[in-house]
Design a protein that fits this description.
There is one protein chain. The strands form two sheets. The protein has a seven-stranded mixed beta sheet, with helices on both faces. The chain is of the alpha/beta class. The longest helix has 19 residues. About 40% of the residues lie in helices and about 15% in strands. The chain contains 16 helices and eleven strands. The radius of gyration is 23 Å and the shape is globular. It has three domains: about 110 residues, no CATH class; about 60 residues, Sun protein, domain 3 (Alpha-Beta Plaits, 2-Layer Sandwich); about 170 residues, Vaccinia Virus protein VP39 (Rossmann fold). Helix 1 crosses helix 5 and helix 4 packs across helix 5.
Length: about 375
């Protein structure tokens, strides 16, 4: 595919996504229908689509319309590329620009690339970090790796990755974190990944795990485990008994193989209470995912006020259930990849208000920036009667 043909394909896919088709489903379907497209073509088309979704509002302004064509014209303009060079009408390229598209007049103020109803809640939640976060949310997210210190040092992992064409730099955010600066799509095929030296994991998430009150021989439950990334991160830091549970057990299906690769023992449970009480229960609860919207940019445009209300109710319910699994003097951990106070600080305040035997002993926000995603973590301590 030519560069212009890739842009034309991205336009078609964006129109499908704007009509309601989830981005991943749309891209997967296109890939299956177009087996001729090589890996570079697929990667380029994906990047174009995700750039359009990240910058949907501002690109629509710069391109003169809110459809896929207008958004891609805008993406090119905002990145300093003359759209006329891609909209040639030749071969599989999109048709040439109209006079109206050439003469688009835009305001000096670039629109924010989040739904309008979220602007005030985000401004209130982020305070002085609002402007930098709104800039960051338009950019591609970094690719970060967690080094499994049970198997390799940072330098050893870097050397092994380098042999497979993956260049990395250490991040100060977490002692286990590497950021990929070259060859990100080679990570999954690398020997370092295959042999359990590294796992894909955001640096903010690694830092949050490292901040926990972990010690050897603890009995730990990852209560909303998903794929088990936090379970593996905790188990790589200290010895103990590790258990993982998720409301949808299918999400845990790859965890045994990942744990074996990492040299870690984890037991998955359909009934989390069967091994209770635990010294620490970690709850990375379902949330808006606003801290990760660079990675799933279509999600932010689908997210509604009703969704937020339902999620905050669910989060409070999960906290209450998980609290019943914690031993006296144990620790309950609450985490989200959300930027919103409603899902973070407000939940802490409400939980303590309704559960008098719990105290917040630590909480921290991690900003969305070039090092990592937006993340929030808090620890509650259950006091003795």
């Amino acid at each position: 595919m030519t560069p212009a043909a890739r842009i034309a394909t991205a336009i078609e896919l964006l129109d499908e996504i704007f009509a309601g088709v989830p981005a991943e489903k749309c891209l997967t379907g296109w890939g299956r229908r177009n087996r001729f497209a090589g890996s570079k073509d697929r990667a380029a088309v994906r990047d174009h689509v995700f750039d359009g979704l990240r910058q949907r509002a501002s690109a629509a302004q710069a391109g003169g319309s809110a459809d896929g064509r207008g958004v891609m014209i805008g993406v090119l303009r905002l990145s300093g590329v003359d759209p006329e060079s891609m909209f040639t009408g030749e071969g599989y390229a999109a048709s040439v620009l109209s006079d109206e598209e050439r003469d688009v007049q835009t305001d000096d103020v670039r629109p924010l690339d989040v739904p309008a109803w979220l602007v005030d809640p985000l401004r209130d939640s982020l305070a002085d970090e609002f402007d930098t976060t709104m800039d960051a949310i338009r950019a591609r997210a970094p690719v970060s790796l967690r080094v499994n210190l049970r198997k390799a040092s940072i330098s050893e992992a870097q050397a092994q990755l380098r042999e497979d064409g993956v260049e990395t730099v250490p991040l100060s955010l977490a002692d286990t974190a590497l950021q990929v600066v070259q060859g990100p799509r080679r990570v999954a095929q690398s020997a370092a990944y295959r042999d359990g030296l590294v796992e894909l994991q955001d640096a903010s998430s690694q830092a949050a795990v490292a901040s926990l009150s972990l010690r050897n021989n603890m009995k730990i439950m990852d209560y909303c485990a998903g794929g088990g990334g936090k379970t593996l991160a905790m188990a790589a830091l200290c010895d103990g008994q590790y258990f993982a549970h998720d409301a949808n057990p299918v999400r845990l299906r790859d965890l045994p193989a990942r744990a074996e690769r990492a040299g870690i023992s984890v037991q998955t449970l359909e009934d989390a209470s069967s091994e209770a009480p635990y010294d620490l229960v970690f709850c990375d609860v379902p949330c808006s995912g606003s801290g990760t919207w660079r990675r799933t940019p279509d999600a932010k445009w689908r997210f509604t006020q009703e969704d937020l209300s339902e999620l905050t109710d669910l989060q409070a319910e999960i906290l209450t259930k998980a609290a019943g699994l914690v031993a006296q003097n144990g620790t309950l951990v609450y985490a989200t990849c959300s930027l919103l106070q409603a899902e973070n600080e407000n939940q802490l305040a409400q939980f303590v208000k309704t559960h008098g035997d719990w105290t917040v002993i630590a909480s921290r926000r991690y900003p969305m920036n070039s090092d990592g995603d937006g993340f929030f973590v808090a620890q509650f301590r259950r006091e003795s009667a």
